[in-house]
Amino acid sequence: MSVPFADLQLQYQNIKSEIDEAIAAVIRGNAFIRGPYVDAFERDFANVASVKHCVSCANGTDALYLAMAALKVKPGDEVITSAHSWISTSAMITHAGATVKFCDTDGATFTIDPAGIEAAITSRTVGIIPVHLYGQPADMDAIMAIAKKRGLWVIEDCAQAHLARYKGQMVGTFGAAATYSFYPGKNLGAMGDAGAVVTNDAALADHMTMLARHGGLVKHQHNIEGINSRLDGMQAAILSAKLPHLSYWTKARQSAAIFYDHGLNQIEDLVVPQAAPDREHVYHLYTIRHPRRDALAAHLNANGIQTAVNYPTALPLLPAYKRFDHSAMQFPNACHDQDSILSLPMYAEITKEQQDMVIDCIRSF
Ligand SMILES: Cc1ncc(COP(=O)(O)O)c(C=O)c1O
Questions:
Q1: Ligand 1 centroid vs 267 CA: distance in angstroms?
Q2: Measuring CA to CA, how many Å separate 222 from each of 197, 212, 214?
Q3: Ligand 1 midpoint to CA 220 (Å)
Q4: Which of 29, 128, 250, 286 has its CA 20 to 30 A from that of 36?
Q5: Using alpha carbons only, how large is the chain's radius of gyration in Å?
Q6: Architecture of domain 8-244
Q7: Helix, coil or strand: residue 350
Q8: CA-CA distance, 238 to 12, in Å (whole number)?
Q9: Ligand 1 proximal residues by C-beta, below 6 Å
Q10: Residue 1 has pLDDT above 90, yes or no
């Protein structure tokens, strides 16, 4: 037996008739770009995400760009984000025209440290992008309090955190806007690239929609210069077919996380994911810390168990940010984590036998 990191084929087989019918309907209706399936998904996802407006787009990276462009980010502005994320979060700050200011994580949850945000604020700071990394909400009360006090906007990066909650409130409902990715491996994943930006602000939603659709809401009326960032009909129909399963899949991930926790939390040197009180973690990734991470990963891989490192280098230390000349000492938690983190197989369909195999293999190490 081997244990894959994720198993999209198994997910498809379990709901094959629903997916096949969704794809066939789009082809029958020639509904490839915009059209009823995109409208329906935007409505349904807004509902599930507890927001008034969902603007679908081509991917979660574009979603970040659209939100910042609509918030009128301009050269000279500074935007604070976490030193530990996927590069989309920081790269889009640059592409929107602002300067990235990295902030360390809190050392426990892999999310941005509110105390570090306070310290990073200057007269040029316009906004904060917390990332609900691996599926755990960032400390939104503390972050929103800082934003309010300093007059900053907040965009939540929810790419890994569909349906996660902070003190009972859905992520993506705290800030001015929130961005989602539906990359195939995400908790809600399309069969290609897909994304969305959500908000409760109707004017912001209209502006983001215009930006994503060549600058206009009506064909040939280009009010501004936009981009082409569309969710295609096929992906929308696939996402709508999967959406009713999301809640069950999330619970299955949470149960699998509890099973791992029980099997792994007595092992010396190994730290299981730390879910802070009042934060509902949706376990997009189940990421442990271990001082001999590379050797442990090699041992697991040699025994047929796939693992991943999300991500091997803290953002400030990537070649892409050489211009800032950052050192690891500025981001001790993020940089220390990057050497010890290891993501274990995690998906809704993972069996207890597979998890036992992972646990036994780690114990034998
Ligand atoms: C935290 C985070 N932000 C943004 C993105 C970008 O999403 P996409 O891959 O859909 O562009 C991802 C996806 O990998 C992500 O994990």
A1: 32
A2: 21, 11, 7
A3: 31
A4: 250
A5: 20
A6: 3-Layer(aba) Sandwich (3.40)
A7: coil
A8: 10
A9: 59-61, 85-86, 88-89, 131, 157, 159-160, 181, 183, 193, 195
A10: no
CATH code 3.90.1150.10 region(s) in the chain: 245-364
- Point out the ligand 1 atom lying closest to the alpha carbon of residue 195: 10
- What average pLDDT score do residues 175-204 get? 98
Mean pLDDT for 167-179 is 98
Q: Give the fold, CATH level 3, of 245-364.
A: Aspartate Aminotransferase, domain 1 (3.90.1150)
Ligand 1 pocket test: pick from 181, 282, 310 the residue with the most ligand atoms within 8 Å of its Cβ: 181
The Å distance, Cα 247 to ligand 1 centre, comes to: 21
pLDDT tens digit sequence for 11-56: 999 999 999 999 999 999 999 998 999 999 999 999 999 999 999 9
In degrees rounded to 5, what are phi and psi of residue 36? -65, -30
- Tell me how far the alpha carbon of residue 29 lies from the centroid of ligand 1, in angstroms: 30
Average confidence (pLDDT) over 175-190: 98
Q: Where are the domain boundaries for CATH 3.40.640.10 in the chain? A: 8-244
Report the mean per-residue pLDDT for the chain.
97
